[in-house]
UniProtKB/TrEMBL annotation:
In the C-terminal section; belongs to the NnrD/CARKD family. This is Bifunctional NAD(P)H-hydrate repair enzyme. GO terms for biological process: metabolite repair; nicotinamide nucleotide metabolic process. NCBIfam families: yjeF_cterm (TIGR00196), yjeF_nterm (TIGR00197). Gene3D superfamilies: 3.40.1190.20, YjeF N-terminal domain. (6S)-NADPHX binds at residues 56-60, 121-127, 150, 252, 315, 367, 434. It comes from Martelella lutilitoris. The gene is nnrD. One of its GO terms (molecular function) is ATP binding.
């Protein structure tokens, strides 16, 4: 589940060399992995067109080209810049390649060929030249299959952003560990099928080189999920409080409450304005009701120490009441979503002050617009990607930040980052975020730590959508949540 940024992968390469591992041997294995992918995926291809860049990615390409020639494949080789200027292992790979190359500017895609993109890989952080953008556009328009080495050229391995233009690969072959750019949008859409090959760098070196980036999945949170025992009863399974808006705005909170119950909270109570009680009572059964008209009533309710977590925001309404309720709840495990976030748009520092000085126990779940309202300067920084934005926001807020989207990112103030990539596109439907808030709240209520609850919530949300299938509505999601006992 560990992801390596391009900088971290470079550090891993250096550490491997310092430990005595032959770096050129690693390049040979990488190039052979590319050639093997070509032979496996496209046995009937008429030709391999190998585009080699001016660095180690190009070195992988030269190795792959020579291996394909030795396997009897017709190979056409094209190089960016003068290959005589190559250094180190890339130069050795070029010298070991017996194929005469041509300048990449001369390349034109041809029918029946498979293109191996070994121009830049994951480390690119600058826009491509106009000439390369035109070449990439021609290749993409020709729709001939592309195998990308490490990452499609033009995609940042750190942020997933397109640097002017990028190949649309059918397959991407990377080495040892995937990079954030493989899963962040729009990079993910350019990678096609991703294969990760082990070329021989030990796990201990990867862990020493790596930081806090992970692909979200059960390895991150399964050990923190609640487990039922013979002595379990409803109060031991936690009591979740979910706050509702008025009579015409209770649907979002009801979705959250149902999701919290389905996730395993022993009791769930909807806290409603008195004028919404009868409307909500006609819509719920296992979820309990509590009239909480104001902060005084909330303070009285909070004297019940069996209440273990809360969800505030879905359909609640934006304004002073929301801010006052958050102030009363700030020391308790809390999912702050939607209107709860927007209520602090004009004074985000007031929210951050409420959450400061304690271990992070609040989960903020902003979408793009809400994130920009709460963290305007971070959102406007085009020099950093979504993971770094989420990390900085989490540090500032002293909270877990679940930055929603098709490439949801979860970040903790201590630097842990998880990129969630299991959500199908049909999850983008009204009310799905309310369900997500309820799932996380249900886990918090059962004692799951905030970062793990947020990671598990995002992953379970995606799995429920896959199980429900295309055409789902938010009401379908809670009924398709996988059982926690089966998550591993």
């Amino acid at each position: 589940m560990l992801l390596l940024t391009p900088e971290e992968m470079g550090r891993a390469d250096r550490l491997a060399a310092e430990s005595g591992i032959d770096s050129y041997g690693l390049m040979i294995r990488a190039g052979h992995a590319v050639s093997a992918a070509f032979l496996r995926l496209y046995p009937a291809a008429l030709r391999a067109d190998v585009l080699c860049g001016p660095g180690n990615n190009g070195g992988d390409g030269y190795i792959a080209a020579e291996a394909l020639k030795q396997a009897g494949v017709e190979v056409a080789l094209f190089h960016l810049g003068d290959p005589e200027n190559l250094k180190g292992d890339a130069r050795r790979a070029f010298q070991a390649c017996s194929i005469d190359g041509k300048p990449v500017e001369d390349y034109r895609p041809a029918a029946g060929a498979v293109i191996i993109d070994a121009l830049f890989g994951a480390g690119l952080q600058r826009p491509l030249s106009d000439a390369l953008c035109m070449l990439i556009s021609q290749v993409n328009e020709a729709a001939e299959p592309v195998i990308a080495v490490d990452l499609p050229s033009g995609i940042s391995g750190l942020t997933g952003k397109v640097q002017g233009a990028a190949f649309s690969a059918a397959h991407t072959v990377t080495f040892m560990r995937a990079k954030p750019g493989h899963f962040l949008l729009p990079g993910r859409e350019h990678c096609g099928r991703l294969d990760v090959f082990d070329i021989g760098i030990p796990q201990r070196i990867l862990e020493e080189a790596g930081g806090g980036h992970h692909l979200n999945g059960p390895d991150l949170f399964a050990s923190a999920l609640p487990a039922l025992t013979a002595s379990s009863h409803k109060f031991r399974r936690g009591h979740l409080g979910v706050f509702s808006g008025g009579p015409s705005a209770s649907g979002a909170a009801r979705l959250s409450a149902t999701a919290g119950l389905r996730t395993g909270a022993g009791l769930v109570t909807l806290a409603v304005p008195p004028n919404a009680a009868m409307v909500v009572a006609n819509q719920v059964t296992a979820v309990m009701l509590k009239a909480v008209p104001d902060v005084a009533a909330l303070d009285e309710w909070l004297e019940d120490k069996r209440l273990s977590a809360f969800v505030l925001g879905p359909g609640f309404g934006v304004g002073e009441k929301a801010r006052a309720f958050v102030s009363a709840l700030a020391s308790r495990p809390l999912v702050l979503d939607a209107d709860g976030i927007s209520s602090f748009a004009d004074e985000p520092d007031a929210l951050f002050a409420l959450l400061s000085g304690a271990d992070p126990h609040c989960v903020l779940t902003p979408h793009e617009g809400e994130f920009a309202r709460l963290f305007p300067d971070i959102a406007a920084d085009d020099n950093i990607g979504k993971p770094e934005k989420a990390r900085r926001a989490a540090e500032r807020a002293n909270a877990i930040v679940l930055y929603k989207g098709a490439d949801t990112v979860i970040a903790a103030p201590d630097g842990r980052i998880a990129i969630n990539a299991n959500a199908p596109p049909w999850l983008a439907t009204a009310g799905s975020g309310d369900v997500l808030a309820g799932i996380i709240g249900g886990l918090l209520a059962q004692g799951t730590p905030a970062f793990e609850a947020a990671c598990a919530g995002a992953w379970l949300h995606g799995q429920a959508a896959k199980r429900a299938g295309e055409g789902l509505t938010a009401e379908d999601l809670p009924n398709h949540l996988p059982p926690l006992s089966g998550v591993s």
